[in-house]
């Protein structure tokens, strides 16, 4: 087990040094009391920040991002190894435990490569420079006369060369790169890259296929017992009033129970049954008799939440501005063609295959948490608050995730395990049953959107979009709330992102309203695609609808507004080229899919174009869905999905393609299959027999084109999810004339729309 190491460094910069014959690299933290030399002397300087290199020239790249099947460590290692100039066969990756010098730990929003590519590239470049400086001292030659390539430093004039490994053995003097020095490093010309932009095998696959990869559920610690939660009959708001464990006391392995009193209110009304094994804990859980005060949400239901949303739409109570351009009301009223439509989405469950779990042990008053998690920094704040301990007493040890998709952005299972370990006074592994996981999920919220707009002379002149939903960020991380457009209040950007699209519409108003009942009864989380999964569903369908109403081809209608003018011109680093890049992928996608051609009776192609995730970190993505509809029954078949994505620089093109394929299938699942409901305050679907994601038999053909246009890397994890549903909705209309505005799209809804 890795012990917790406290880091205290005096300056923000980049450190290069030697520890026990190993070259070490990393950023220092601001504000610590010790200088580099003193920190090393006192043994508090952690060498393992961004990479280590041993005397054989083998490099281990330290990864702070969560691995849940997206193989994120590989492109991050490619970025570093490219600039370090090290042979790829010498590179491995390590998923690190939390420590202050790493900064923010979060994996979501398709941010991983986008946020860290430059950082890790410069980490590699600084390492290369430090190694070359080591050769300068060894040979007494100017740095300018040296070059580095393939793990070797070379001096052309004398013909001398030395391997990185031998330089490490010789010793490299400690080196601090300031932020200015890092920024001044000239990174490689993209044309000369040998790793970035090239497909390589994912570094984590061998361990996953030979069984050596460790997931959270695999963790074993000495003296550990196992717990599983007995959850209340309502999703949120219950309180335990009594526990009778008389029936459990005679059971084999029973180790008692812990009532979870969570000061953070992440969970309410939970009891954890403890035993020697998981199966014994399940039996003990079922034997516990728990009495509850069920709280305020016993009457909540999906229907009531949607009804409340409709009422909020009419009243406007609680509305906050997210976008305010021009004067949308008069522009719409004066338009030649006007249209209004309502779009809704239902509850969705994450349902990762690996049950949620965390193992907690206390060593020297430090809570060591072993699990896979996407937002370790959040846990580092919540656990001390729940346990009333100092933040320095908590460390999260990271393992592979057997599915995340936003579910493991949450800390509930970590908090439950930590509180259980405290209550039991011994190490505990807590494992959720499938039923506990699903019925206590932080779901994708129910949403209700009204979109109103007007077009004249072939272009939108005004558009209004109002979204009612739960605000996950207000519950989970309120510090991430943003000022409203008019500075009159706060908005949850992660409940409305995507409504600030890249179409040029001179008069646009977007408002967001937090749904009180959804917020209380169905605590929302972030599910893969986040808000763009519902905001673009409305935007892309609405633009098709108004184009059809105006007698204009939807493709030409959209392209006419993707003119990259004004705020849609884009700029460095993430949106160079602006809306023209979205127009480009849309045109390519339409051409590749055969859009506009006669596909036969009952077959249509629908288009959608999105810039998921956030406006300041767009990934330009288009999808064409080819769908066949039986007009007599409403049954439909998604025959093919054609996707084109511009990621700027595809660090690992094969990895990007795989992400887009997986995302598109996830999008199909949400768009056409997945549907959860709440009745009497409880989620009704508790396993895969009642919550039914996409099956193999439903697989469409998928054609993915990855454009690597040389710009800064964009994310690839979620755009394929976001773009799929509106493309399918538009395709069903093209094939049959049926317009469905509620997700998931089902044959019954298609038939009803056909009249």
Describe this structure in words.
By secondary structure, the chain is an alpha+beta fold. The chain folds into three domains: 14-210, 2-Layer Sandwich (Aldehyde Oxidoreductase, domain 4), CATH 3.30.365.10; 216-296 and 356-431, Aldehyde Oxidoreductase, domain 4, CATH 3.30.365.10; 302-348 and 443-754, Aldehyde oxidase/xanthine dehydrogenase, molybdopterin binding domain (Aldehyde Oxidoreductase, domain 4). 30% of the residues lie in helices and 24% in strands. The strands form eight sheets. The protein has a seven-stranded mixed β-sheet with strand order 12-13-10-20-17-18-19. It has a six-stranded mixed β-sheet with strand order 5-4-3-2-1-9. It has a six-stranded mixed β-sheet with strand order 15-25-22-21-16-32. Strand 6 (146-149) and strand 7 form a beta hairpin. The longest helix is centred in the first third of the chain and has 28 residues, at 112-139. The termini are far apart. Mean pLDDT is 93; it is low at 1-21 and 23-48.
List keywords for this structure.
755 residues; Aldehyde Oxidoreductase, domain 4; 3 domains; 7-stranded mixed sheet; 30% helix; globular
Provide a short characterization of the protein structure.
This protein is an alpha+beta fold. It is 30% helix and 24% strand.
